[in-house]
Design a protein that fits this description.
about 260 residues, alpha/beta, Uracil-DNA Glycosylase, subunit E, six-stranded mixed sheet, about 10% strand, globular, hydrolase, 4Fe-4S, iron
């Protein structure tokens, strides 16, 4: 019994949920009891609604301050989730933007993204390439932390659309994507495939590829600080990613 009292049941439950999510289990129970021996009901397919009656997602604000207020409101996918909605931080006209997947478990207590151990490591990573946190715009694909720490597939596309709109409002010269969810949202590519090379993101059209120089953000994908804390051996690879970002900064300064 003495050993049981030392267990952090909240973190243990969250860890178990993350494990089940990785195993492909995304529903714990049905909302109502099910009679497993009942004959299946006939499938009724409703006719498709006319295209003219389809409802498009509500328009997102075109001014960053208005967008950030909207981001914590009732029209976003996380509105019904439990927890605190954490806004982005940093200058509206930042040259460098950092995008992560979602708040860490301890960010809610501080009321800010990357406020714990992950944030301290990020600060050291930024300092290594001559950047300070207060000069960087920091945001998350999810404004709230999902229950199991993983973004549900049914909201991925909408959250990606919102994140791309956010990037367009900041229009950074460089974008650092930290973690697999951020890479998937912006580049449509798993992190391991995205790492090791520069990507171009047209923040006006929200598409990867080329465009006018003023419309293109250079993108580097790397590991999330929380992963580096768990797997210190990956820090050498993360440093290579940061060097790419730093090299692009120097190159662009030389052009100006």
């Amino acid at each position: 019994m003495g050993a049981d009292q030392t267990i952090d049941w909240r973190n243990a439950a969250a860890s178990a949920l993350e494990w089940w999510h990785e195993a492909g289990v995304d529903t714990l129970v049905d909302d109502v009891p099910r009679d497993w021996f009942a004959a299946p009901e006939p499938l009724i397919v409703a006719p498709a609604a006319p295209a003219a009656l389809s409802v498009s997602p509500s328009a997102m604000p075109l001014v960053l301050a208005d967008f950030l207020n909207w981001r914590g409101g009732a029209e976003v996918p996380e509105a019904s989730w439990s927890g605190i909605s954490l806004a982005a931080s940093g200058p509206a006209d930042a040259t460098v933007m950092v995008l992560v997947d979602c708040p860490d478990r301890d960010d809610g207590d501080a009321g800010a993204l990357l406020s714990g151990g992950s944030g301290r490591l990020l600060d050291r990573m930024l300092a290594a390439i001559g950047l300070a946190r207060d000069a960087v715009h920091v945001a998350a694909v999810c404004a709230k932390r999902p229950t199991a720490g993983r973004i549900q597939s049914e909201v991925e596309d909408r959250l990606a659309e919102i994140a791309k709109h956010h990037i367009g409002l900041v229009a950074p010269r460089q974008l650092l994507l930290l973690g697999n969810a951020a890479s998937r949202a912006i580049l449509g590519t798993e992190l391991q495939a995205a790492r090791g090379r520069l990507h171009r993101f047209n923040h006006k059209t929200a598409q990867t590829g080329t465009g006018d120089a003023s419309d293109v953000t250079t993108v580097v994908a790397s590991y999330h600080p929380r992963f580096l804390i768990e797997k210190p051996a990956a820090k050498a690879e993360a440093w290579k990613d940061l060097q790419m970002l730093m090299g692009e900064q120097i190159s662009q300064k030389g052009v100006r």
